[in-house]
Write a structure and sequence with these properties.
The complex is a heterodimer of chains A (538) and B (395).
Chain A: E1 3-9, H1 13-24, E2 29-32, E3 44-48, E4 51-54, H2 65-70, E5 80-83, E6 87-89, E7 95-97, H3 102-112, H4 114-134, H5 150-164, H6 169-179, H7 182-187, H8 193-204, H9 216-224, E8 227-228, E9 231-232, E10 235-238, H10 243-255, E11 259-261, E12 266-272, E13 275-281, E14 286-294, H11 298-304, H12 313-321, E15 328-335, E16 355-356, H13 361-372, E17 381-385, E18 400-407, H14 420-435, H15 441-444, E19 445-451, H16 453-460, E20 496-498, H17 512-524
Parallel strand pairs in A: 1-2, 1-14, 2-11, 6-16, 14-20
Antiparallel strand pairs in A: 3-4, 5-10, 6-7, 8-9, 12-13, 13-14, 15-18, 15-19, 17-18
Chain B: H1 16-22, E1 27-31, E2 34-39, H2 43-52, E3 54-58, E4 63-68, H3 72-79, E5 92-98, E6 104-114, E7 117-122, H4 127-133, E8 140-143, E9 149-154, H5 158-164, E10 178-183, E11 186-191, E12 200-205, H6 210-221, E13 226-228, H7 231-240, H8 284-293, E14 297-304, E15 314-317, E16 322-332, E17 337-345, E18 355-363, E19 366-377
Parallel strand pairs in B: 3-13
Antiparallel strand pairs in B: 1-2, 3-9, 4-7, 4-8, 5-6, 6-7, 9-12, 10-11, 11-12, 14-17, 14-19, 15-16, 15-18, 16-17, 18-19
Helix pairs in contact in B: 2-7
The chains are: A alpha/beta (538), B alpha+beta (395).
């Protein structure tokens, strides 16, 4: 039987990035995917004829431009188109529009609060300072603070120096920022509840925490640290849907001689004498390699596809305690036309970006209360986009596709598994909320895909439907991600590695975990590094 | 005091009523006699209209010459470095033309409109040279810049937009082909040409019909993401396509004052446009000599390390000697590369040469400098297959 140099489990964007860099270094690499299609949560599928959905992830900012350029993804047809705008509709019939242009933005905030319009500049400078600190670490392996290896010590010194260079004030700010709630953070800048509500969304997306839970300020930062063409904090659409990213990565991987097998769910990672020797599929087929990379989340990796007896007890315990609570659902909708909204003229440019229907942090906190009570939010926070206003490829001309990210939606309803009726009721809650602001939305719906954490776990393989492969809180970030002592992509068994969003620097369609992991693997194999250095922001 | 229209510093194109209504920024620049929009609203949106949907650019100020007469083809063959024999009616050809020193006067496109009727489009004005070359040929040459107006309609959904405008059969136009369509009681000429390196067309019509054309086009393009674009967005895409621009990437030979400023087609990377297998053309002798003796400069497309555009940078070799300069540079949002066009002293610019650009950038009022390694690239930086496909895909 053929033996590969490396096997990567899971054809999500990080698995493919990892595999591409291993193959680029000359390794013979096999990627195994359980679904009949690749992409994981970076996927485009057609479920209604003529329409394409970005079924899971739906917008792109974090994907590392170094990888995009180095793997020549543009040659494989990938186009990321930045969008600007954004709007939060208010109960009283008004709205807040989020213009990218400074002056227009100032004018719009001033409609709600003149002081906030000016405070926004202070807010942007402070957030920019924090993003500048964190961005250089995205394409670096976190140091182990307990290690005395020269490499770890040097990396720690590098981190300290980066902070030191910014002046001592920043240290105070950073420690507060990384631990405080997005609500408290925004309260320090703004008085208008609509401005705060609009900005607070980024602090809770994908997270089982409320706007006043400590740690959510970092989640906001996580959504601001990406960029499109150098504009930090900008977001964009992948032309053709998010699956275009996976497709381009797969093409790049295959151009280096890599092989992908779909319909190939891995049952177990094979371990013998304390080192990996390959995998066995659910259908019994075996594939052998001395390097096995799991792109699955930490719980799935250590508790499902590895035998407890092959692992240190400590790792099993950490995997069991790993925080990966599902908090969100998703609706993908085919629309017969562009919906109109009471608050603004039809086809308004603000609608070309994300829109929301919750106008105070108090309502957001109430939405979280529902989740804590084991049910979906009755007045949810929605992150809604209609990408087809920009992307002509995903629906017929004049028709539209809508993607709705819903916060909050629990992995189980009052402790019990979801039923189909409950799923539909969840979908109805979301549609009803939008209909309060749009007279024709309901009538335009041709097809809707409703996804609760149950669907995301069963179809994509995200434990509890957690979109980040584990929560982005300080106890699970940097050298603690996924667990202390295992943050450098190496698993507890020789030859076993991790490449998914459960590793540093975390979730989002970023590619950095996959690339950083490839760098460590190539280092262990004494191969020439193929992973590019990060661009400098300076 | 009122200024008479003809005395104004800049003139308005026949599309002005439409372009000015849409220009939110009020950012305009003169282009030859006319004022044109630099950016209507948001630069990135205009850029991505070209690469993602349908973009419309007012081409009115482009210099245009009407060439008629039975010797037209022979005349063009003498004028151009490229063989014009294959240019049958309904076809368009890109070429350069040179003075007797073999230096490029300009680059442009020749449209064979109808039997014995051509149009030459260029950036600069050349009537004097065109007439000088016409001696001995039975041709008439006239400046028709103000008699014909044009719109570039470019981008992946541009063909669908034109089909929706009821231009039947437009999808069958191959690159560098042109066709007439009845429109508004006159003739609308459509050519599959452009300055974007993408799928795209150019629409040409008499100025009296300009507004009607604009309105019909924008009505048809609405479901296809149509957007007007200014010169700033166009400049990014033409660099991505690797296209040179007179006055930016080379000095038109007619205007050269200082020694060594002129450039031959070889020195602009346009070797493929020089066809010595025709006996006579302007500059042939000098170009033949250059081909034997070697050129002074090399024009290259560069992939510049990092993400800071290398505008107005010097180029150095490994020994830190200046060996050339960047003529155009930008970050390419479609190729996701930091790209530049550059003129280098011979022999620099070979594939394996170690060369660097000196990049200057400003961060919070502080200037910084870095040396970025460059890699010489062959072909366009961004070259989507849809550019050549006939009939085009729907997007």
């Amino acid at each position: 039987m053929k033996k590969y140099d490396a096997i990567v489990i899971g054809a999500g964007h990080n698995g493919l990035t990892n595999a591409a860099y291993l193959a680029k270094a000359g390794l013979d690499v096999l990627v195994l995917e359980k679904n009949p299609y690749i992409g994981g949560a970076t996927v485009s599928r057609s479920l209604y004829e003529g329409w394409t959905y970005s079924n899971c992830s739906y917008v792109c900012s974090l994907f590392r431009p170094e990888i995009y350029r180095d793997l020549e993804l543009a040659r494989y047809g990938l186009q990321i188109i930045p969008y600007e705008g954004g709007i939060t509709f208010m109960k009283n019939g008004d709205y807040f529009g989020n213009y990218a242009d400074d002056e227009r933005h100032h004018r719009e905030i001033a409609r709600h609060s003149k002081r906030d319009a000016n405070a926004y500049h202070r807010y942007t400078a402070d957030v920019s300072r924090q993003t500048r600190l964190i961005r250089p670490f995205m394409m670096r392996t976190p140091p182990d603070p307990t290690s005395f290896k020269p490499r770890d010590v040097m990396e720690l010194i590098y981190i300290i120096k980066t902070y030191w260079d910014l002046g001592e004030e920043i240290l105070y700010d950073t420690i507060r920022f990384w631990t405080m709630s997005v609500g408290d953070f925004l309260d320090e800048y703004f008085e208008s509840s609509i401005i705060k509500a609009h900005l607070a969304g980024a602090g809770i997306i994908g997270t089982a925490l409320g706007v006043y839970s400590p740690g959510t300020a970092y989640v906001l930062l996580h959504h601001y640290m990406g960029d499109v063409d150098g504009t930090i904090g900008a977001w964009g659409f992948a032309r053709g849907g998010m699956g275009s990213i996976a497709k381009a990565l797969a093409d790049a991987f295959q151009s280096f001689g890599g092989e992908i097998k779909v319909d190939a769910g891995v049952d177990k990672i094979l371990v013998s004498n304390g080192r990996v020797k390959g995998v066995v599929l659910e259908n019994g087929d075996e594939y052998h390699a001395n390097t096995v990379v799991s792109n699955l989340d930490p719980k799935r990796t250590f508790l499902k596809i590895m035998e407890e007896k092959d692992l240190p007890a400590d790792v099993v315990k950490k995997a069991k305690n790993f925080k990966i609570r599902g908090s969100s659902g998703k609706l993908n909708i085919s629309l017969d036309g562009m919906p109109s909204f009471y608050a603004i003229p039809k086809d308004h440019e603000l609608l070309k970006a994300d829109f929301h229907f919750i106008d105070s942090m108090e309502r957001m906190e109430r939405a979280y209360d529902d989740w804590k009570n084991g049910t979906w939010s009755k007045d949810p926070y929605l992150d809604t986009l209609i990408p087809t206003q920009v992307d002509p490829t995903m629906a017929p001309p004049g028709k539209h596709m809508m993607t709705i990210f819903v916060q909050y939606c629990p992995p189980k309803v009052e402790g019990k598994d979801w039923t189909d009726e409950q799923r539909d009721a969840f979908g109805k809650t979301v549609i009803d909320q939008i209909s309060e602001y749009s007279p024709d939305f309901k009538d335009l719906i041709l097809h809707a895909e409703i996804r609760t954490p149950r669907e995301m776990e069963n179809e994509v393989g995200l434990t509890e439907g957690n979109i980040f492969h584990g929560e982005l809180t300080m106890d699970q970030l940097l050298f603690n991600r996924p667990f202390p002592g295992y943050a450098q992509y190496r698993g507890p068994v020789k030859g076993m590695y991790m490449s998914g969003s459960g590793t540093h620097p975390g979730g989002g369609v970023m590619g950095a975990p996959g690339a950083n992991s490839a760098k460590e693997i190539l280092r262990d194999l004494r191969r020439k590094n193929t992973v590019p250095e990060a661009f400098s922001d300076e | 005091m009122t200024v008479r229209e003809a005395d104004k510093r800049v003139l308005q194109t026949p599309f002005h009523s439409r372009t000015s209504a849409l220009c939110e920024t009020n950012l305009w620049s003169p282009w030859k006699a006319y004022t044109v929009v630099d950016c209507y609203s948001v630069l990135t949106n205009e850029y991505f209209a070209i690469r993602n949907a349908t973009a419309v650019f007012d081409l009115t100020p482009m210099t245009k010459y009407r060439i008629t007469g039975k010797d037209g083809l022979a005349y063009l063959d003498k004028l151009m470095t490229r063989k014009m024999g294959k240019l049958s009616p309904g076809r368009v050809m890109y070429s350069v033309w040179c003075n007797d020193l073999g230096h490029v006067l300009d680059d442009g496109t020749v449209f064979h409109l109808k039997e014995n009727h051509w149009r030459l489009c260029s950036q600069e004005r050349h009537l004097d040279w065109l007439l000088a070359t016409a001696m001995g040929f039975d041709v008439d040459i006239d400046d028709e810049t103000d008699d014909v107006t044009g719109l570039a309609v470019q981008g992946p959904t541009s063909c669908q937009t034109l089909k929706t405008m009821n231009l039947q059969g437009v999808e069958n136009l191959k690159p560098f082909q042109l066709k007439y369509f009845p429109f508004d009681g006159t003739e609308l000429m459509v050519s599959r040409t452009g300055f974007t390196g993408d799928l795209g067309y150019e629409l040409w019509i008499a100025p009296a019909h300009a507004e009607t054309l604009w309105d019909a086009l924008f009505a048809a393009g609405k479901p296809y993401g149509i957007l007007p674009i200014g010169t700033h967005a166009l400049d990014i895409v033409r660099i991505e396509a690797g296209f040179i621009q007179a006055g930016v990437d080379f000095v038109p030979a007619l205007e050269v004052v200082r020694a060594g400023r002129g450039r031959s087609p070889f020195e602009l990377g346009l070797d493929w446009l020089v066809q010595f297998d025709k006996p006579v053309f302007n500059g042939r002798k000098a170009l033949l000599e250059e081909k034997e003796k070697g050129s002074r400069y090399r024009f290259v497309r560069l992939d510049v390390e990092g993400n800071k555009p290398a505008n107005e940078s010097f180029i150095y070799n490994g020994k830190k000697e200046i060996v050339g300069h960047v003529t155009s540079a930008t970050w390419s949002p479609s190729a996701k590369m930091n790209i530049a066009l550059a003129s280098l002293d011979m022999p620099w610019g070979r594939t394996d040469d170690e060369i660097y650009t000196e990049v200057y950038y400003n961060r919070e009022l502080q200037w910084n400098r870095l040396m970025a390694r460059c890699r010489v690239v062959g072909g366009a930086f961004f070259d989507p297959p849809r550019r050549r496909k006939t009939p085009p895909l729907n997007y």
